[in-house]
Amino acid sequence: MNHPFLQSLRTIGFYFGTWVLIAVIHFSFLFFFYDETFIVSVADSTIFNMLYCIMAIPIWYAVRYSQFTGKVTFNLVFNHFVSLTIILFIWFGTGRAILPAIFSDNGYYHHFFTKSIPWRIISGTLYYLIIVMVYYVIIYYNNLQEKLRVESKLNEMVKDSELNLLKSQINPHFLFNSLNSVSSLTITNPEKAQEMVVKLSDFLRYTVSRNNEKFSSLQLEFENTRRYLDIEKVRFGSKLEYDFVMAEECTSIQIPVMILQPLYENAVKHGVYESTGRVMIETKCHVEDCCIEISIKNNFEPGAPSRKGAGIGLQNIRERLKLIYHNEQLLKTRIEVNMFEATLIIPKEIPGIINN
User: Fold this and answer.
1) More confident of the two residues 320 and 10
2) What is the DSSP string of 267-298?
3) What is the DSSP string of 128-156?
4) Which of 51, 106, 270, 341 could form a disulfide with 297 if both were Cys (CB 3.0 to 4.6 A apart)?
5) Per-residue pLDDT for 167 more than 70?
6) Domain count within the chain
7) Local structure of residue 351 (DSSP, 8 states)
């Protein structure tokens, strides 16, 4: 984050203009209330205030790298105490070296300068506190704007992503193939047809009902995934097999809704569709210290022509994870001979910007 008062000519002008106004007030007190001469008043107010104007610029970096997070800590107080001491020492020491030298033959000013030391130290301390408070307000405002911008972008991305996922999941081919399977089963196996209709209905109901939600438990996501795979299994029969191995602690973990579905779609599209043999989709989930790892692995037939898709599946997952968790390394893919594996790393804690 750049210095807020050095970003443009406008902010520079505002910053120095503020200090000129402070110097004018300082001059007025000296000239009208303490009966100092015009030259002495101008010199005293200009030198002391312009010195602080310059000294206040690096205070930003002390504030920037020791940000206030709502809880006052000893380190924060100590850092500012040291910073204030250094600022006052340089500011007052420089002013004391310059002004008495300029007015070395003015005994009245020397006497006034000595008597004014306490209120100069107090005013310097107040300057510091006000400047630090202004800097913290600027940081808070910038952080708030950034959070609002990210949240807005996230909401837009989630909405677009979910719409694309829905287009991918509930596309005409999927529905047509499922309904054709149901139609055939009504003649050969009515009970199986009824079971498939129920599962298809449950799958569509879950997908639509979660469209406006951002998170869901891993258990509910896996249950809906099983519905999807059961529907596809009716079409592919023994060619499609799947297995879930999940630690008990995983079930209650909250994950972004529908984040897993494109991975199973890829497994079916690029594995089952193009293979002549049996394809196993294996899912494993285990808990780490601060996250869970979900591994989805499927075999495929080497050399089989790749089916072209819209290219939104893995990319949407990466973009959503990046926006939600601010981490680009949460989805990893690996291909070994005839095996494709996708690994999702999901933090246990839901980010505050999403949880609010």
Assistant:
1) 10
2) HIIIIITT-SS-EEEEEEEEE-SSEEEEEEEE
3) HHHHHHHHHHHHHHHHHHHHHHHHHHHHH
4) 341
5) no
6) 2
7) P
Chain segment 221-240, per-residue pLDDT in tens: 999 899 889 888 888 888 99
For residue range 12-56, list pLDDT tens digits in order.
999 999 999 999 999 998 898 888 889 989 999 999 999 999 989
Query: What is the pLDDT at residue 69?
Result: 57
Range of the domain at 120: 9-149
Which residue(s) pair with 295 in the sheet? 284, 343
Number of helices (H), then strands (E), in the chain: 11, 7
Instruction: Concatenate the DSSP letters of all residues of 14-59 into one string.
Output: HHHHHHHHHHHHHHHIIIIIS---HHHHHHHHHHHHHHHHHHHHHH
Query: Domain with 235 in it: what CATH number?
Result: 3.30.565.10
Show contacts of 123-130: CB within 8 Å, 24+ apart: 124/52, 124/87, 124/88, 124/91, 124/92, 125/84, 125/88, 127/52, 127/56, 128/59, 128/83, 128/84, 128/87, 128/88
The structure tokens listed for 320 are 């959503």
**Residue given tokens 């193939």 in the structure block:** 177
- DSSP single-letter state for residue 309: -
Residue 154 covered by a domain = no
pLDDT at 244 over 80: yes
3-state secondary structure of 254: strand
Residue 66 lies inside a defined structural domain of this protein: yes
- Residue showing tokens 């879950």: 206
pLDDT over threshold 90, residue 72? no
Answer yes or no: do 114 and 261 share one domain: no
pLDDT of residue 248: 85
Per-residue pLDDT at 186: 87
Those residues whose C-beta lies under 8 Å from the C-beta of residue 227, and which sit 6 or more positions away, are: 199, 200, 202, 203, 206
In a domain? residue 1: no
CA distances from 29 to 51, 110, 152 (A): 19, 17, 50
Q: What is the DSSP string of 189-247?
A: -HHHHHHHHHHHHHHHHHHHHTTT-SEEEHHHHHHHHHHHHHHHHHHHGGGEEEEEEE-
Q: What angle do CA 311, 312, 318 make, to 5 degrees?
A: 115
Q: What is the value of pTM for the model shown?
A: 0.54
- Residues 198, 327, single domain; the answer is yes
